[in-house]
Design a protein that fits this description.
79% helix; single chain; 233 residues; mainly alpha; 2 domains
Length: 233
């Protein structure tokens, strides 16, 4: 099994942690308990910053995760800055309470973790909503294109009037919202396309029936979207 190459972030992070350790042992020849605890939390903050940066860099190419990456990255560095500042204050000897340093550090760590969880949850919810919207738009656009092709075909000029009505209804509908009728419309348009291609068939009633059904479904879709939006207010 091949070892994965060490990233520049890991190398830089390791150097920073080593320098931190050297400075600590150089400046505090006889560390107190508070200074030891502060030093541990200082290294922990640096480790979280380095590890978090490495983890987030793996998702840098995922456009749909951009908001999560930006939010969590900012949160990590804010936490790291506050945690390191508190540790440095205690290392200098300004405060000598082990309980105080532990409580401060655990509180800000817990707050950062809770905010990160809420941020990821909220961002995923928005992402899923945007994804659903894009899928709804794509489906309606495909239906619109299919109807336009049927309407533009000279062989279907006998049905051009109703095809134009269907096309206009789909073109100006609220395409940013998925409605149950969307799938039915797509299915009926496919059936209509097949029926219109059956040149050997003299049964126009099937085509007329499908045209009328699609027109009715477009009206039904409008009502479904209105009801969904009314219920969401």
């Amino acid at each position: 099994m091949k070892n994965k190459p060490i990233t520049p972030i890991a190398i830089i992070g390791s150097i920073i942690m080593v320098v931190t350790a050297v400075l600590f042992f150089t400046l505090t020849r006889r560390p107190t308990d508070v200074q030891w605890i502060s030093f541990i939390f200082l290294l922990l903050a640096e480790g979280i910053a380095i590890g978090g940066s490495i983890a987030l860099s793996k998702y840098a190419g995922h456009t749909e995760k951009t908001m999560i990456i930006a939010g969590v990255s900012a949160l990590i560095w804010i936490y790291t800055g506050i945690s390191m500042l508190i540790s440095l204050i205690f290392i200098t000897g300004a405060f000598r309470s082990v309980k105080a340093i532990v409580n401060f550090q655990l509180i800000i760590l817990a707050i950062a973790a809770i905010i990160a969880l809420l941020l990821i949850t909220a961002t995923k919810s928005v992402s899923e909503k945007n994804k659903a919207t894009l899928q709804a738009v794509a489906q309606i656009k495909q239906i619109q294109d299919d109807v336009f092709m049927l309407m533009s075909d000279e062989r279907n000029k006998a049905h051009k009037g109703k095809l134009e009505k269907i096309y206009e209804a789909i073109r100006y509908c609220d395409n940013a919202t998925y409605a149950p009728a969307d799938d039915k419309i797509a299915l009926k348009v496919m059936e209509l396309e097949t029926a219109l291609q059956e040149v050997d068939s003299n049964d126009e009633s099937k085509v007329e029936g499908l045209l009328n059904e699609i027109l009715l479904l477009t009206k039904k879709r409008t009502l479904e979207v209105q009801n969904m939006k009314a219920g969401g207010i």
